[in-house]
Amino acid sequence: MLTENSPFADAASIDRHLGNMAKLNEIQSKIFGIRPTSRDQLPFEEEPAKPDQLPYLFEGDIVLTDEQMETILRPLQFLHRNTEEQLLSKNGGIRERRSLTSDLYGRWQTFPIPYYINTGSGVSESAVLAGVKVWETETCLSFRRQPSRTRGNGLEFFLGNGCFSMVGRVGFTFQQVSIGFGCTSLGIVAHEIGTPISVPVQFDGHALGFYHEQSRYDRDKYVRMLTGNIQNGYVAQFTRQSRRSMEDYGVGYDYGSVMHYGQFSFSQNGLPTINTIDTDYQQTIGQRGGPSFMDVKRINLAYCNGTCSNTLPCLHGGYTDPKNCASCRCPTGFAGVVCDQAAPNPGVCGVGGRNATSSLQSISVSGAVSCSFVIKAIIDAYTITWIKDTVHCLNFTLFNCKLRAHSPPIFRFCRSRPKNSVSETNILVVLYRGSSNTAFTLSYRYGVVIYFLGFTL
Questions:
Q1: Residue 239 confidence (pLDDT)
Q2: Are residues 162 and 56 both part of a single domain?
Q3: Pair (338, 367) in one structural domain
Q4: Does pTM top 0.90 for this prediction?
Q5: Closest by alpha carbon to 293, among 262, 263, 314, 272?
Q6: Which residue, 202, 196, 205, 199, is CA-closest to 170?
Q7: Which neighbouring-strand residues pair with 444?
Q8: How far apart (Å, rounded) are the C-alpha atoms in residues 311 and 11?
Q9: Bridge partners (DSSP) listed for residue 412
Q10: Which domain holds residue 370?
Q11: Mean pLDDT computed over 200-229
Q12: How far is residue 202's CA from residue 198's CA, in Å, rounded to a whole number?
């Protein structure tokens, strides 16, 4: 049934969309190697179990145009008959490293981006303003609020049935972004803006141009889809995009992206539908606290890369700040012009920069405070940590640890039993985001890397 707040223009567009979703579900089932199941009726009139998991929309919260749906279906129809290598040879090669929309969806060309908050629909004005402010603060993008829809492109925020948005700039009119009940957290609003803005992000990352992170073409290196736990007829919500449809800007897969599904998304039995290949990141996926460092970095590289005439030699995954060309934008835990220093801490946390030795040292923090620690060992050494008492992931209270070599997201610990870890390099980053009833103790020392006949011991 077509309602006032439907994301579709008419009954014919609904029929086309449902037919395409059925096609997508059948093809994706074959790719997963499972028997296709159908959904005879989609609950348009029911409140969704989760507002960002609408069963009749692509990936639960994305409204696709007919052209966008066709561009997604076409490579999948090849993939269920051919390997991706065969597909590459047929198409003369496909560009790598894509996660933002590239050729499929229009980028925003004119700034500031006009937006209209349809307060008459009941949408939360404060939630929208907070989401807009995040992207304006963190990126070079600008937005301009106006009292009504006008001619030309723009965003209209309204109270719809759930959270949804289009991907990228579509057509030559205002496109709707639904911030329904249950969608007003900062992370979800930022997620939905990112979709139409990026190329792509959900701003909702979707309005900016982002797909969901787990739909990246290279996702199979990082996550595994547990099809036996996915609701019947919903495997189309776990479609993997082709390489040519996404732009990554060299940022890489981000478990901590605000655009990533949670581990229980579309579960039929309360068990995970997504497992991370590296189990340390299982608790990281699905965060909705706000855009990650890498989410913001992608938008800045997509839209702001020409802002600064100089490029600084930023360390630890940092990049030249488009809002201050004389300094780098540093990942959490680092500071300094080129991200070569530990970020300052509140006094209760203690000093942020720590040097590991061969003797065991400890860090203990408790309560509602944010702390970051950069623990360095001598070159050709690694850091061994023993986490004695860690926090529970309650209300986005985080205890995070970066052990990996390059700049993947820091992973989250949510456990009360001890956890032993070894870093891949001589630098370990630890973040604590506490509440009144949380605490942790971490002990650390270094171990020496010994090279013997070409092997590392």
A1: 84
A2: yes
A3: no
A4: no
A5: 314
A6: 196
A7: 361, 385
A8: 51
A9: 400
A10: 347-456
A11: 75
A12: 7
